[in-house]
Design a protein that fits this description.
The structure holds two protein chains of two kinds.
Chain A lengths: L5 H15 L4 H4 L5 E2 L1 H9 L9 H8 L3 H13 L4 E3 L4 H4 L4 H13 L9 E3 L43 H6 L3 E3 L13 E3 L12 E5 L3 H4 L3 H8 L6 E6 L11 E4 L8 E5 L7 E5 L12 H12 L9 H6 L13 H7 L3 H6 L2 H7 L1 E3 L15 H5 L13 E2 L3 H6 L35 E4 L15 H4 L6 E2 L5 E2 L1 E4 L1 H7 L6 E6 L2 E9 L7 E3 L8 E3 L3 E2 L26 E7 L2 H10 L1 H5 L2 E2 L3 E2 L12
Parallel strand pairs in A: 1-12, 2-3, 6-7, 7-8, 13-19, 16-18, 18-21
Antiparallel strand pairs in A: 4-5, 9-10, 10-11, 13-22, 14-15, 16-19, 17-18, 17-22, 20-21, 23-24
Helix pairs in contact in A: 1-4, 1-5, 1-7, 4-5
Chain B lengths: L1 E6 L8 H10 L19 E10 L2 E10 L7 H5 L5 E3 L5 E3 L22 E3 L4 E3 L5 H6 L6 H5 L5 E5 L21 E4 L4 E9 L4 E2 L4 E6 L2 E6 L5 E7 L3 E7 L6 E6 L5 E2 L3 E2 L2
Parallel strand pairs in B: 1-9, 10-17, 10-18
Antiparallel strand pairs in B: 1-8, 2-3, 4-5, 6-7, 10-11, 10-14, 12-13, 12-15, 15-16
The chains are: A alpha/beta, B mainly beta.
């Protein structure tokens, strides 16, 4: 289907169910379980707007033939069906993605959500749906990765500038937003950055960041590079183990050890496979002056102590792991972290044994069959005793909170809608607006197949895999851009060509991978490769397409989700003339040291003494 | 005799075989069986991927191709300095100390499978050793590629103990008796969706009969109106689609060039 047209598909499917009577009518009209189904029915059948959302209507929008939509609707209704996805693609991280997300739930509800086998799950980021039983082998033996973090959480700051708003917040303050994160009530509190000065609010003067990959992982990285260079930002400190991405904008860099260069304790319960406690031993390094993240921050704390006042005993406060007592070293914190592993696991293996053995696979709870059933089964069994977190405690086809707080929000209305956007909306990123005339392709940009965001971007053996990198005629290893043969032919593109994907936010390069694995009208480029800018804020070479994704998140009043997939781009073969012009205009960008196997390396960013 | 067994239908294309080989051999000196593999550019155990058919009927197939450890390995005779030999267990080895870098084995006569690589930095020919150094150690009974395979698509062992029923070898016409056996090597397929444009519905249970390539094959369309006729020869076919209430439709389809995922077929 066309990226980010999922709502059209869901509407077509729901229309078939309603008109053919193949859904759980008793459930969706039962006022113990659901509210507002009549409103949804009015919209789907066209009573609300005069447009029945037939499979033919849906097919025009999502590109799936009407006969296939009918077949899918009937097949779904005739079988016990759950929804499972990786991250659900552009439906999860596209413009207005609140709408397909809600329609997923509507659709499950219409087929008896909470009945055996009628649930929703995610293959990755296990646990992200927040439903009981979502993680495998859940139960009393389940160790929590979060539980082993020894660092006391910083107190909630009095003003926030959320990640997706870094660039508008720094470049064009003030900005106001509603965040759909956290408790339900909190989602309807308007925040403004900066807070009023009388309340102690201030513009950001300094950034200190670890995991510095905001340009690569968040909204509109091109504008973020402008924000990082804005005169209002006086200082940026970054700490990281690889010279990449936002570090290139930092004033001071604290080098961090890589995994394997220090001892560490960890657990893995979120991958959906085995639950493991790990003691990962140092096998090399540390290299140069690199330290653990914990020690980097600790050294700053020690230096600050000389100023007294609020900085008195800062290191002790910082390093005591949120507990009372003496300052601790990094090694001393291991035992604190081990203590956070559930008691039943500790009965099976002592800390000394764990250190010796290095890993411990936690067995499944022997009583797992007695554990409470998962998903929404308990809600289904007794909705009064097990209410949902909605205002009514029920499945809300018409969301009561949205009705109360944003009754006229056309981008996230109380009943989910087909929201294509356009001029005057938060996003004009569909084929039903104006920008599509200049940028007619919808890009799919998923978590990468061969790395995690920018992590392991330089792994030489991965880069030899055909869908990991495409070697351009200039020898540079480009991030693949998938394009269908018919689109490629119309554009004169063949596999291996350097292509540029672009829109009004900037230009990102890639290597053409012409394939039947993507439909016409869509292109695909995984996101998250470390940036390699040819022209700062304008042209990026490595294929970090978050540099040109939309500036704002999901919708006007729904910021927290990203809109980093399913947006508009144009694609063209990059002409040799244009590349030659760039080489003349930006000679420094082409003079950087480049390693064929691993890409940009440390030396690429160092003026002197890099080789040492 | 040692042998590999690779099942195309089991492989999900994770590349752990290809990467495992590099982890075992890059930067590690396994003399007398192999000097270190270069960091990049060599694929002693190569996974090749094939995109088959046309949107929306597309399949991916992955085929693992290491040295075939042929019983009649022509590389052995092609080597003028007798650097290439077969061990008693069948693994074919290029002795890294004897190889003089003459490149006599780097052509289609000496190795029609094209699995011998040249290491410019140390001037010798190199290839898969079957991880003879691991086999000899006796603790791990598989080369690293097979040990790495998380879905058991790639197996290794005594040829007599492997389940070789229904297996094929690559290019049997070469007549070299390779020791790498394959299950479910991709053949050609013809697939499509059958629908009725008067109702905009798929046609379920339509009979799709394919004639040609020396035989006849039949499939019925499923709940999505889809039919898949797989395991075909590269040939010209006549496809006949019939269903109750519709006139029978006949069309010519060729798999000579490639697999065919047909545009949706209107039976009305």
């Amino acid at each position: 289907m066309l990226p980010n047209t999922d709502t059209a598909l869901f509407l077509g499917i729901n229309y078939v169910w309603m008109t053919e009577g193949i859904y759980d009518e008793d459930f969706v009209t039962d006022d113990k379980y659901c509210v507002g189904f009549d409103k949804w029915e009015e919209y789907v059948l066209g009573d609300e707007d005069g447009i029945p959302k037939t499979p033919e209507w849906a097919a025009e929008r999502c590109g799936v033939p009407a006969w296939t939509i009918r077949a899918l609707a009937r097949r779904w209704a005739s079988r016990v069906t759950s929804q499972a996805g990786g991250n659900f693609g552009s439906a999860y991280r596209g413009p207005f993605s609140s709408e397909p997300a809600r329609m997923m739930i509507y659709s499950l509800a219409m087929q008896g959500l909470g009945n055996p086998g009628v649930h929703q799950l995610s293959y990755i980021e296990v646990g992200s749906r927040g439903l009981p039983g979502e993680q495998m082998e859940d139960g009393e033996f389940f160790p929590s990765g979060r539980g082993t973090s020894p660092i006391a959480k910083a107190p909630q700051p009095m003003q926030n500038l959320p990640k997706p708003l870094y660039s508008p917040g720094i470049l064009n303050p003030p900005v106001s937003y509603y965040s759909p994160k956290g408790a339900r009530e909190a989602q309807f509190v308007k925040h403004t950055y900066p807070s009023p000065a009388a309340e102690g609010g201030t513009k950001v003067h300094m950034i200190w960041m670890d995991s510095p990959c905001n340009t690569v992982c968040l909204q509109d990285g091109m504008s973020l590079t402008r924000a990082f260079r804005d005169p209002s930002l006086e200082f940026i400190c970054g700490q990281h183990m690889v010279m990449e991405d936002d570090l290139l904008y930092c004033d001071v860099i604290l080098p961090v050890v890589r995994m394997g260069e220090y001892d560490d304790v960890n657990t893995d319960g979120g991958s959906g496979s085995l639950n493991v406690c790990l003691f990962s031993k140092r096998v090399a390094g540390p290299i140069g002056e690199s330290k653990t993240d914990f020690e980097c921050a600790g050294e700053i704390a020690k230096k600050l102590e000389q100023y007294g006042g609020q900085f008195t005993d800062l290191y002790k406060k910082y390093s005591s792991g949120g507990l009372t007592g003496a300052a601790r070293t990094y090694e001393e914190l291991f035992e604190v972290r081990y203590d956070m592993i559930p008691a039943l696991v500790k009965d099976m293996i002592s800390f000394e044994e764990l250190k010796e053995q290095e890993f411990f696979v936690v067995p499944a709870n022997p009583n797992w069959e007695d554990a409470a059933v998962g998903g929404l089964s308990q809600f289904r069994a007794d909705p009064v005793a097990n209410p949902l977190t909605t205002q009514t405690g029920m499945i809300e086809f018409e969301c009561q909170d949205l009705k109360d707080n944003f009754p006229d929000d056309r981008e996230r209305p109380p009943v989910a809608h087909w929201v294509p956007g356009g001029p005057g909306w938060t996003h004009d990123e569909s084929l039903w607006g104006e920008r599509c005339k200049d940028y007619p392709f919808l890009i799919v940009s998923n978590h990468p197949r061969w790395r995690e965001h920018a992590q392991t971007v330089g792994a030489a053996w991965m880069r030899e895999i055909p869908t990991c990198k495409v070697r351009g005629p200039d020898g540079y290893m480009y991030e693949p851009v998938w394009i269908h043969p018919t689109d490629a032919a119309a554009k004169g593109i063949v596999s291996g060509d350097i292509v540029k994907i672009y829109n009004d936010r900037g230009v990102v390069l890639g290597g053409a991978y012409v394939t039947e694995r993507i439909r016409p009208g869509a292109v695909w480029q995984d996101h998250g490769v470390s940036i390699d800018e040819i022209a700062r804020g304008l042209i990026e070479r490595a294929g970090s397409n978050n540099m040109i994704c939309p500036t704002w998140g999901v919708s006007q009043n729904c910021l927290g989700g990203e809109a980093t997939s399913g947006y508009l781009v144009q694609i063209e073969k990059l002409s040799l003339d244009e590349m030659e012009q760039w080489r003349k205009d930006y000679p420094d960008s082409f003079a950087r040291k480049y390693d064929y196997a691993s890409g940009n390396c440390f030396d690429a960013w160092i003026d002197e003494g890099g080789t040492e | 005799m040692k042998a590999f067994l690779f099942d195309v239908n089991q492989c999900n294309g994770c590349y752990c075989c290809q990467i495992g080989c590099k982890d075992e051999h890059c930067g590690n000196d396994w003399t007398p069986y192999a000097k270190p593999q270069p960091l990049t550019g060599h694929f002693w155990g190569k996974l090749s991927e094939y995109v088959r058919g046309q949107a929306t009927h597309v399949k991916m197939s992955f085929v693992f191709v290491p040295c075939q450890h042929c019983e009649d390995a022509p590389c052995i005779a092609a080597c003028p300095v007798d650097a290439i030999y077969r061990r008693p267990d069948g693994l074919v080895i290029i002795d890294p100390k004897k190889c003089n870098g003459c490149k006599s084995c780097l052509n289609a006569q000496a190795c029609p499978y094209g699995v011998i690589y040249f290491n410019d930095s140390i001037n010798i020919a190199q290839k898969c050793t079957g991880c003879a150094h691991l086999i000899d150690r006796g603790e791990i009974f598989a080369p690293r590629c097979a040990d790495n395979c998380p879905v058991l698509a790639l197996k290794f062992g005594e040829e007599s103990e492997l389940d070789l029923s229904g297996t094929e070898t690559l290019h049997p016409e070469y007549g070299l008796t390779p020791r790498v056996h394959y299950k479910n090597l991709p053949k050609r397929f013809i697939a499509g969706t059958v629908y009725d444009s008067t109702k905009n519905e798929v046609v379920i249970g339509a009979t799709c009969t394919l004639t040609g390539g020396g035989g006849t094959k039949t499939a019925a369309t499923d709940h999505f109106g889809d039919f898949w006729l797989d395991g075909l020869a590269a040939s010209d076919f006549s496809l006949q689609i019939s269903a109750t209430g519709f006139a029978t439709k006949t069309m010519s389809v060729s798999t000579v060039e490639e697999d065919k995922g047909l545009p949706d077929i209107d039976l009305a």
